Amino acid sequence: MSLSGRLTILALFVVPLAAGCGEYPRVTVVNQGGEPIGEIVVTLEEGYSYTVGSLDTGGRTTICVEPEGESSPTISYIDGRGERREASGGYLEEGGGYYLTLTIQGDGEVNINSTIGY
């Protein structure tokens, strides 16, 4: 088989894996506030941090995380007034289809919703 044929076969397996989280838990951050937020970071209890970046009003993004065992994540961000805000809660475990949604409200409160299964 030629090199280009091998690369095509490899791409067929790698692209679907990169497109999803597989068995890793997912964390979705939603900005339902009235202003953009920035410097969003999700940190797991064991210290692993995942930089989300910024979200416009109404924006959302999903990241894959890799907790070691059980974890209750913390989200920190800069609100529209330039103040650093932080909230902790929810529950994730490695594998098993855990899904956490962190919804940032206009008053700066963070609604946390943990579910199992996608």
Task: Describe what you observe in this structure.
By secondary structure, this protein is mainly beta. It contains one helix and ten strands; from the N terminus they run H-E-E-E-E-E-E-E-E-E-E. The protein has one helix spanning 3-19, and strands at 26-31, 37-43, 49-55, 60-64, 70-71, 74-78, 84-88, 92-93, 98-104, 110-116. The strands form three sheets. It has a four-stranded mixed β-sheet, with no helix packed on it. The protein has a four-stranded antiparallel β-sheet with strand order 3-2-6-7, with no helix packed on it. The longest helix has 17 residues, at 3-19. The radius of gyration is 17 Å and the shape is globular. The N and C termini lie far apart (38 Å). Residues 6-19 have low confidence and may be disordered.
> What sequence of helices (H) and strands (E) makes up the elements?
HEEEEEEEEEE
Helix fraction by DSSP (H/I, runs of at least 4): 10-25%
Structural class of the helices, strands and pairings?
mainly beta
Do you know the CATH architecture?
Sandwich
How much of the polypeptide forms β-strand, as a percent range? 35-45%
Average the pLDDT over all residues and give the rounded result.
84
Q: How far do the termini sit from each other?
A: 38 Å
CATH topology: Immunoglobulin-like
